[in-house]
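For the sake of transparency, this paper describes our internal protein records without simplification. Because each token names a local backbone shape, the row as a whole describes the fold. One such record is reproduced below, unchanged from the form in which we store it.
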Amino acid sequence: MSVSLRIADLLSDGMGALRQAGIEGAAREARLLLGVAAQLPPAIMIGFPERSVEVAAADAYRALIARRVEREPISHILGRREFWSLPFIVTSDVLDPRPDSEALIEAVLDEVFDRQAPLRILDLGVGSGCLLLTLLHELPNAKGWGIDLSPEALAVTERNVAGLQLQQRTILREGIWDAALVPADPTSFDIIVSNPPYIPTADIAGLEPEVVRHEPHLALDGGADGLTAYRHLAPVVRRLLAKDGLAALEIGIGQGESVRALMQTAGLTYVGSNRDLGNRERCLLFRVS
């Protein structure tokens, strides 16, 4: 006879462990992890807490709880994250797609007059692919180029390209910014997007454990003042942006004035911004002067 444990007991233990680790939303996450480990829908866990779970499923659940207690992001544990209502594979090799980054998608789409146009999109620092692939999903005749320095990140991007069935419209390049482009690639792009590293080096240690321990510092570290990547990007964006093109850059908190100045000095015209869910300026938009 197999040994099993009650749903209520497992959830109680899991919630307690998560709360002790300082994790907000402990009840929600405990239910989510038990649902994954035991293949239980929320309605069963809520409506029938007295039901039993098999030992193997209970052990798998405890293992997931232990990983979360170590502050491994829930998206890494599940292996996926939803962004713009699309499923993205995520690992420790890429930044976790964040809802705040949807401000950039919204801003770009608001500026696209014809969503059926054969636009050329460039993503500098493509990571998981959440920005580029979301835009390709929304712009059905567009073609996208994604560049990243990390081969591990590009491997994740490739999986997301396949998952969203965008292989025919996506080209990935490994390298540093525009140096990764090859002669066969366009010399100008209609849309350029980037979520570059923008955290000041000294601030990284103070970020949430999920970020510090489990996300790639290469994609976080923006140098002493957080602006190193923007200094490199400014002339690149100016050179590669088509005459009527649009550039959209994600920024960190309080970086708007500095990034605007860098881009304007390079010859770009600031045309607007968009705010994230916390009402913070999160995305800046530029066109060619």
